[in-house]
From TrEMBL:
Protein name as annotated: Salicylate hydroxylase
GO MF, one annotated term: monooxygenase activity
Record organism: Rhizobium lusitanum
Sorted UniProt keywords: FAD, Flavoprotein, Monooxygenase, Oxidoreductase
InterPro entries listed in its UniProt record: FAD-bd (IPR002938), FAD-dep_Monooxygenase_BioMet (IPR050493), FAD/NAD-bd_sf (IPR036188)
Domain FAD-binding: 6-343
Annotated signal peptide: none
Pfam families: FAD_binding_3
Superkingdom of source: Bacteria
Entry cofactors: FAD
Length: 387
């Protein structure tokens, strides 16, 4: 029979979305978060139509629409010459083609919208500052005041819930570092576009920039190769680490270099991805989001996949026994995640191309109109989650 209650470990995007998705089917959830206060690390994020469609179904999108920005397009630009390479239209085009908007926002904006909806929902209870022993099911039940039918691990790359799943995947360092910072629009170089998501491309490195409307700032992510020195994603990079980052952008346009050279408070974010493994234990525990399948950000789908996971898992749990739902969920979600991993790997290869491969990339992309490139995204952005 379908479950009545679930314990959700982690109150990030995956956990909060899972609580709302379960409540949509009348399933109560108890959300356990070890932090005393919810603070979202990182800065901005892109919310593509496959995710915004779900947020709309959960009653969250209306809180975002007056705040976020719907970029006119996603642009690929040479980091050396600033010459446009290609673009995919968004804005009204995204609404018409994929049936839902494409937006950019601060992570805290999305988290607050989810949190407000969770707080207002009688079927969702959030427990902050709870350093719970994941293996102690009686302890979880005791805090919640009721028996939990299922544990949902939504606690990220360094998940503790993963210990409950035999054969679960392990984090693997990707040999890439993401340097993240925001830049006020008033002090941003003129090369940054206030209406678009722009990816500046170069050999072995790239830079993604897009406006965050609610903070009047640009979100900047610079990705270069490097070594991992910390699991703290809010750590500030040392001078030696910053020097290594700047070497990765050697020869780039001078305006980009000046922008990077002044960012002494940029956060040093080692990029980890999950290896192959099981996402559930067959009976009472399942992993979603980064806890199950953290991936490289080259397809900008990390948050979207967490949202899809939560929505589809809830739909399956609402109509099936736990064991059947968990098995179906993994079989259903795994091929999509695998395909997105392949897309992200291809994007990394294309973004970081050099020499003749870079020239061939630019030639091929220049021959394709924006609408044709948009069609390549239909399977990602046009996906309609089952919930």
């Amino acid at each position: 029979m379908p479950i009545k209650t679930a314990a959700i470990i982690g109150a990030g995007i995956a956990g909060l979305t899972a609580a709302l998705a379960l409540a949509r089917h009348g399933i109560r959830s108890e959300i356990f978060e070890q932090a005393d206060v919810l603070t979202e690390v990182g800065a901005g994020l892109q919310i593509s139509p496959n995710a915004s469609r779900i947020l709309n179904a959960l009653g969250v999108l209306d809180a975002l629409l007056p705040i976020w920005l719907e970029p006119q397009d996603v642009r690929l630009v040479s980091g050396y010459s600033l010459r446009p390479v290609a673009s995919v239209p968004c804005g009204d085009f995204a609404r018409q083609r994929w049936g839902s908007p494409y937006g950019t926002a601060h992570r805290a904006t999305l988290q607050k919208a989810l949190l407000d909806a969770v707080t207002a929902n009688a079927l969702c209870t959030l427990h902050l500052g709870r350093h719970v022993d994941i293996k102690d099911r009686r302890g979880l039940d005791g805090i919640a005041g009721r028996d939990m039918d299922l544990v949902i691990g939504a606690d990220g790359v360094w998940s503790k819930a993963r210990a409950l799943v035999p054969g679960a995947p392990s984090p693997l360092f990707s040999s890439n570092i993401a340097w993240r910072f925001t830049l006020p629009e008033a002090s941003a170089p003129a090369i940054l576009n206030k209406t678009s998501v722009t990816a500046f491309l170069g050999p072995s490195s790239h830079l993604v920039c897009y406006p965050i409307r609610e903070t009047a700032a640009f979100n900047i992510v610079a990705i270069v190769s490097g070594s991992s020195a910390s699991h703290d994603w809010s750590a500030i990079g040392s001078k030696a680490q910053r020097d290594n980052m700047l070497r990765g952008f050697s020869g780039w346009n001078s305006a980009i270099l000046r922008m990077l050279e002044t960012q002494e408070q940029a956060s040093f974010w080692p990029l980890y991805e999950m290896g192959v493994g099981r996402w559930h234990n067959g009976s009472d525990t399942i992993l979603i989001g980064d806890a199950a399948h953290a991936m490289m950000p080259f397809a900008a789908q990390g948050a979207a996949m967490a949202i899809e996971d939560a929505f589809e898992l809830a739909g399956m749990l609402a109509t099936r026994s736990v064991s059947e739902a968990l098995d179906l969920y993994e079989k259903h979600r795994a091929p999509r995640i695998a395909r997105l991993r392949q897309r992200a790997a291809f994007n990394q290869f294309a973004y970081h191309a050099r020499g003749p491969i870079r020239m061939a990339r630019d030639l091929v992309l220049s021959l394709r109109p924006p609408q044709s490139l948009a069609a390549d995204m239909d399977w990602i952005y046009g996906y309609r989650a089952i919930g």
